[in-house]
Design goal:
An 8-stranded parallel β-sheet has the order 1-2-3-4-5-6-7-8. About 50% of the residues are buried. It is of the alpha/beta class and about 325 residues long. Strand 6, helix 11 and strand 7 form a beta-alpha-beta unit. It has one domain: TIM Barrel, CATH 3.20.20. The longest helix is centred in the middle third of the chain and has 19 residues. It is built from 17 helices and 8 strands. The protein binds hypoxanthine and zinc ion.
């Protein structure tokens, strides 16, 4: 089997995707028009030209601006549904999607509007595309601890629709320790926990996410490589890292894909996975990420299969479902 065929054939779980980051310019224009909201671009080409980032913040500014056109439940439904259609094309059979409620509630959109639109899309994806999913609610780390507590309170009535709590947005200057107390409260309420750490921030932020936030997975975590003791810990615990290669390239975390450390981390026995992060902004969905690293790093078929196996092992699905998908991967 050719490697491209293998990538397409492998069942995969996506564990690091921001639903607001799947907002394709075509859909953004359509929703802006129906909601009669002005956006600062005249054409889709102009939008794409603006997607030229030099670090995380330069991306986040544009990402938050794009999300402003989402107002109604149907908008959130359409956003998620378009992403599920991409999953179907890439054989992503399970996805755990982040959403950022504060991006919406801070502009007067009700929490309920966001969660209802997303949940309805998740239900339809299961029924119509046979794709399973979970929602992960993220706190914006550039906002205060108090705002995170308030967001957690708003999520409690929807506890059954949210599997985990995460932490995203501007990493530098907003260390995990800022959210230690609210993560403890989320754990008490029964949520699983994840956090972005070690994307732009130092290895110390990964330690904090492990020891203070007590996360079940690290999102990104690529800068862990700077600390051998941390790598040892991540390996010993098989703590998953949800790595996002095209994101790292577009946000200049690496200068060239040939320099990406995903293969080295995999070879050292860490539980690394491949993910798209914000695919509408970074130039590719799941399979595009697999193809980019395969070409740049000469990944073997065994490595590709291991990455797919890791995606299920690192997911929040049942042990029986993990075994089913891993058996299928091993039979390919
Ligand atoms: N990092 C931090 N926050 C984010 C990202 C990311 O890659 N994407 C969307 N919000
Ligand atoms: Zn992310």
């Amino acid at each position: 089997m050719q490697q491209l065929e293998l990538i397409r054939a492998l069942p995969k779980a996506e564990l690091h995707v921001h639903i607001e980051g799947t907002f394709e310019p075509e859909l953004m224009f359509a929703i802006a028009q129906r909601n009669q909201i002005e956006i600062p671009y005249k054409s889709i080409d102009e939008v794409k030209q603006a997607y030229n980032f030099h670090n995380l913040q330069s991306f986040l500014d544009i990402y938050y601006a794009g999300a402003q056109v989402l107002i109604h439940e149907q908008d959130f439904y359409d956003l998620a549904w378009a992403y599920f259609e991409k999953c179907a094309l890439d054989r992503v059979v399970h996805t755990e999607m982040f959403f950022d409620p504060q991006t919406h509630t801070d502009r007067g959109v009700a929490f309920e509007t966001v969660i209802n639109g997303l949940t309805r899309a998740c239900d339809d994806a299961k029924q119509q595309l046979n794709i399973s999913s979970h929602l992960i609610m993220c706190f914006l780390r550039h906002l205060s601890e108090a705002a995170a507590f308030d967001t957690l309170a708003q999520a409690l009535p929807y506890k059954d629709q949210i599997i985990a709590i995460g932490l995203d947005s501007s990493e530098l200057g907003h260390p995990p320790e800022k959210f230690e107390r609210v993560f403890a409260k989320a754990a008490e309420a029964g949520f699983l926990l994840v956090a972005h750490a070690g994307e732009e921030g130092p290895a110390d932020y990964v330690w904090q996410a492990l020891d203070l936030l007590k996360v079940n997975r690290i999102d990104h975590g690529v800068r862990s490589e700077e600390d051998p003791a941390l790598l040892q810990r991540l390996k010993a615990e098989q703590m998953p890292l949800t790595v996002c290669p095209l994101s790292n390239l577009k946000l200049c975390v690496v200068d060239q894909m040939q320099q990406h450390n995903i293969q080295r981390l995999l070879q050292q026995g860490l539980c690394v996975t491949v993910n798209s992060d914000d695919p509408a902004y970074f130039g590719g969905y799941m399979n595009d990420n697999f193809i980019a690293i395969t070409e740049a790093l000469d990944l073997t078929d065994t490595a590709l299969k291991q990455l797919a196996i890791n995606s299920f092992n690192a997911s929040f699905i049942s042990t029986a479902d993990k075994q089913k998908w891993i058996a299928e991967i091993e039979s390919i």
